[in-house]
Amino acid sequence: MSGRIVIAGAGSIGCFVGGLLALGGEEVVLLARPRMAGEIAAHGLTLTSFEGWSETLGASRLHVETDPAAALAHAALVLVTVKSGATEEMAALIAAHAPAGAAVISLQNGLNNAALLRTALPGRPVFAGMVSFNVLHEGQGRFHRGTSGPLVIEAGAPPLVAPHLDILAHPDMAAVLAGKLVYNLNNGLNALSGLTLRQQLADRRWRLLLAAAQDEALAVLRAEGIQPWSLGKVPVTRFPRILRLPNFLFRLLSRRGVRIDASARSSMWEDLERRRPTEIDELQGAVIARAAALGLPAPVNRRIADAIRAAEAAAAGSPRLDPDALRRPRS
Ligand SMILES: NC(=O)C1=CN([C@@H]2O[C@H](COP(=O)(O)OP(=O)(O)OC[C@H]3O[C@@H](n4cnc5c(N)ncnc54)[C@H](OP(=O)(O)O)[C@@H]3O)[C@@H](O)[C@H]2O)C=CC1
Ligand SMILES: CC(C)(CO)C(=O)C(=O)O
């Protein structure tokens, strides 16, 4: 890629992807909040992965800006890596400061961020992207990748290459993001459990809740005529059946799926722990709204969304719920 790549929102995904692009020789500018800029100035970036590799970029190899005008002025490509609630604000900064021809790629969860950016940035080339893997911010400039999977970018976007990243182009990002939404319905459950992803998915009671939430979402996607894309060989539509299997069968089958290291947790768990607003409106909220528009039920997603909103309001981190607390209330 020729020209400057600006990471619009240097957090977990931004520092990890931006750091690897810089490592590969790209000209990268990290647009960061002052706190993150200070952390990077003090420690540089250390990027690690469940695969066992570790890469260090000293602060002198990184270009970090806290001023959006300075960061965006000479951008050829902007990768949007803020949480969904900050997309509009970042779109306004891009509109004000980035060159008109700069391409924009959303690397966010949720179905609507690329559309939101397109509306806010008329005439600019805007593309959807999807990060299938998890990155945890461990402090002191350390970012750890805890799960396997590629970075998927809409076909037609400027091609990206970075060491350690498997980057695929896909023509149908609506299908890709729908598939990711089905995965991401576990973010809230994982955050409520306070467990690592491995511990949580090893407990069939959590899996039954996830299967029920996914069934509701799959019914909505079916009614909308969207076939969700699957990351692996198993179609997303089969997930609920697999999740409902007894533990020993689930363990056997999941060995062939996404690789998850022992410490990995969802980004929503990190949001609750850091007292930040979550993306529940873009995940469970999207299923609930679309189900309502179609006259379909979504009671499980509703209970999960309510529990996350209560945890946000309590501002006490993960409530470490027992899964039985989320089961249908007895009448
Ligand atoms: N983390 C993960 O494992 C995964 C995340 N995703 C998705 O990627 C997206 C980003 O998530 P993640 O990286 O975890 O989020 P983070 O909150 O870690 O990173 C976003 C960063 O952007 C900063 N930011 C927000 N607005 C601005 C601004 N105007 N100027 C400069 N910095 C700004 C935030 O600072 P502050 O908080 O202070 O506002 C924060 O540091 C989300 O949509 C998420 O769902 C997808 C797959 C996996
Ligand atoms: C990678 C995955 C699915 C992990 O839960 C995620 O998207 C997230 O944490 O936001």
UniProtKB/TrEMBL annotation:
Domain of life assignment: Bacteria
Tagged with keyword Lipid biosynthesis: no
Catalytic activity from the UniProt record: (R)-pantoate + NADP(+) = 2-dehydropantoate + NADPH + H(+)
Record InterPro entries: 6-PGluconate_DH-like_C_sf, 6PGD_dom2, ApbA, Ketopantoate_reductase, KPA_reductase, KPR_N, NAD(P)-bd_dom_sf
Organism lineage string: Bacteria, Pseudomonadati, Pseudomonadota, Alphaproteobacteria, Sphingomonadales
Enzyme class: oxidoreductase
Protein name according to UniProt: 2-dehydropantoate 2-reductase
Organism: Sphingomonas kaistensis
Pathway connected to this protein: Cofactor biosynthesis; (R)-pantothenate biosynthesis; (R)-pantoate from 3-methyl-2-oxobutanoate: step 2/2
Assigned protein family: Belongs to the ketopantoate reductase family.
Residue ranges constituting the Ketopantoate reductase C-terminal domain according to the UniProt record: 179-311
Record domain Ketopantoate reductase N-terminal: where: 5-155
PANTHER family (UniProt xref): 2-DEHYDROPANTOATE 2-REDUCTASE (PTHR43765:SF2), 2-DEHYDROPANTOATE 2-REDUCTASE-RELATED (PTHR43765)
Keywords of the record: NADP, Oxidoreductase, Pantothenate biosynthesis
Pfam families, sorted: ApbA (PF02558), ApbA_C (PF08546)
EC number: 1.1.1.169
A GO term for molecular function: 2-dehydropantoate 2-reductase activity
Role this protein plays: Catalyzes the NADPH-dependent reduction of ketopantoate into pantoic acid.
